[in-house]
Amino acid sequence: MSDLQRSFAKAKLAHLPLEPPLRANALVGDDQIEETDELQPLPESAQDEDSSSASSASSASSTGTIRPNSKHLLARPIGSGQGSNALAPLPWTDYFAREYYLEHAGPDETVIHHVYFTPPAPKKALFVLHHGAGSSGLSFALLALELRKLLPDIGILSVEARGHGETVVKTPDGEIKGGPHNLSLEILSTDLLNAIELVRAKLEWPQTPDIVLVGHSLGGPVVTDVALKSVLGKAVLGYAVFDVVEGSAMEALQKINMYLATRPKSFPSLASAIEWHTRSRTLRNSTSARVSVPSLLFRRSDTSASPQAEQPWLWRLSKKFLEAKGGKLLILAGTDRLDKELMIGQMQGKYQLQVFPDAGHFIQEDEPQKTAMVLADFYRRNDRSALVLPAKVGDLLKKKP
Questions:
Q1: Residue 295 — φ and ψ, nearest 5°?
Q2: Nearest Cα to Cα of residue 216 among 58, 14, 380, 395
Q3: CA dist 342 to 87, 147, 204, 380, Å?
Q4: In principle, which of 40, 68, 80, 361 could form an S-S bond with 286, CB 3.0–4.6 Å?
Q5: What's the pTM?
Q6: Beta bridge partners of 110
Q7: 117 has which bridge partners?
Q8: 218 with 179: CB under 8 angstroms?
Q9: At how many degrees (to 10) do helices 368-382 and 141-150 cross?
Q10: Do 354 and 329 touch, CB atoms closer than 8 A?
Q11: Roughly how many angstroms between the first and final C-alpha of the chain, as a whole number?
Q12: How far is CA 137 from CA 65, 129, 197, in A?
C-alpha cells in the first residue's frame, strides 16, 4: 500500500465509531427485547424458505419440528422483519370478528367455552375448527383470514378445548379446575357439539347452518368422531383432518410431554416467547407465531399427566375417517405414516389427499394460503347449495304446448 493510500484510509477510519454497530437482526437476549405497541406493515405471507419435510406427527410429536436445527437456529424466519416490532404480538381482532364466552352447565361441572367467531352470510356455511393438544383457537387465525378472502360469505368458528386457551372448567362450587383435565374423546366431542349449539342459540339461528368440520392433529379424531355419530345430521357437508393419522395419533398424548420439556417453563416477555417458537422452528411462519404464541402461554391443561393419555381412544381412527358420512379431506406434511387402510381408501377415491412437504406439523400456520385454497376447493365440491338439479320429467311435459 502506498503512502497516499495509507493516508486516505486513515482519514476514512477516523470518522468511524470505535466499535461496529450491531446488525438489526443480530441475536439478542430475551431481557433485551423491547415491547412496543407500534406494528410495522406485515408482508402478505411470512414463511420460512427452508422447510424440511417433517413427518405427519401429532401436536405432541411435533418435537421433530421443535428440535432445533443447528443450521438455522440463529436465523430469523423469512418475513420476520427487523427490530422488536417483528416480535410484537398481533391482535386476534385482525382475524376474527368476535369472541364469545359460552357457558354450558352440567350436573358435575360447568364449562365456559371460549371461541373465536366470524358470522356467515345468511344461508352460507360455517367452518368449525378444532385445534390440537397444547395449541389454541388462534392457531387457525391466518387460515381464517385466507379462507375468507376466497369465500367471503362463509363463517368461521374456532373452538378452544377445555384446558386450552381461555376455555375453563368450573366445579359446582364455582372454582376453576386446574389440570389435568379429562381429555377423553367422548368429552372433547361433546364439548365441540355443545359449543356449536351454544353459538346457534346465542345468534338465534332457527337451525344449524351447513358445516365443514376441520381438525388439526388431535382435533382430527374429535371432528371425525362428531361426523361419525351424525349428531349434526345432514348439516355436515364434510370434514377435514390436518396432519394426523392413526399411527401418529396413538403417540400424541404420550409425547406431548416432550414438547413441554423442550419449551422453556417461562419467558421474560411475549416477544421472547414468539422468538423461541420461530427460532426453534416449532412454527415456521413468523406472522402466525405473533398471533398464536401468546395464547399458548395461557394453556391450562397438563395433558401428559392426564389418565386419559393411556387410554386407546384414538384407535380405529382410519376406519372411522373412512366410514363417516360427508366429504373427506386429509392434509399431511408427509406420507410416511399413511397406513395401509388409508392408502387403499385413497386409491379407491374415498377421500381427498393433499400433501404439503414443505410444511411442518402446524400445516395451517406454516402454509395458510395453500391450506385455504385446498379447503375452499373442498367446500365448493361439497356445497349442496350450489347444486342445480334437473327439472322433473312431469314438469317438462306440462310446459309443452
A1: -70, -25
A2: 58
A3: 40, 27, 40, 24
A4: 80
A5: 0.74
A6: 105, 170
A7: 98, 157
A8: no
A9: 50
A10: yes
A11: 105
A12: 20, 8, 18
Crossing angle of helices 286-296/141-150, nearest 10°? 130
Contact predicate 314/221, CB 8 Å: yes
Work out the angle between the directed axes of helices 270-279 and 286-296 (0-180°, nearest 10): 120
What are 253's three cell numbers? 398424548
Q: Evaluate the CA torsion angle 227, 230, 236, 238 in order and state its sign.
A: positive
361 as an active site residue: the answer is yes
Per-residue pLDDT of the chain (401 residues; tens, 9 = 90+): 555 555 545 554 444 444 433 333 333 333 333 333 333 333 343 444 343 333 333 333 332 332 334 333 334 443 444 455 788 899 999 999 999 999 999 989 999 999 999 999 999 999 999 998 888 999 999 999 999 999 999 999 999 999 899 999 999 888 888 777 788 899 999 999 999 999 999 999 999 999 999 999 889 999 999 999 999 999 999 999 998 887 665 555 555 556 666 778 788 888 888 888 888 887 888 898 899 888 887 655 554 444 354 455 567 889 999 999 999 999 998 776 688 899 999 999 999 999 999 888 899 999 999 999 999 999 999 998 766 556 666 665 666 55
Pairing of strands 211-216, 110-118: unpaired
- Catalytic residue (choose from 56, 136, 217, 318): 217
In angstroms, the Cα distances linking 46 to 37, 40, 49, 195, 292 are: 20, 13, 9, 32, 14
What is the H or E stretch that residue 327 is in? strand 327-332
CA distance 371 to 360: 13
243 is catalytic: yes
Residue 302 among the catalytic residues: no
Sign of the dihedral through C-alpha 243, 247, 249, 253: negative
Alpha helices in 212-269 (DSSP H): 219-229, 246-262
Q: Which helix (H) or strand (E) holds 113?
A: strand 110-118
CA pair distance 268, 31, nearest whole angstrom = 6
From 113, 164, 277, 361, the catalytic residue: 361
Quickly list DSSP for 135-171. Answer: --GGGGHHHHHHHHHH-TT-EEEEEPPTTSTT-EEE-
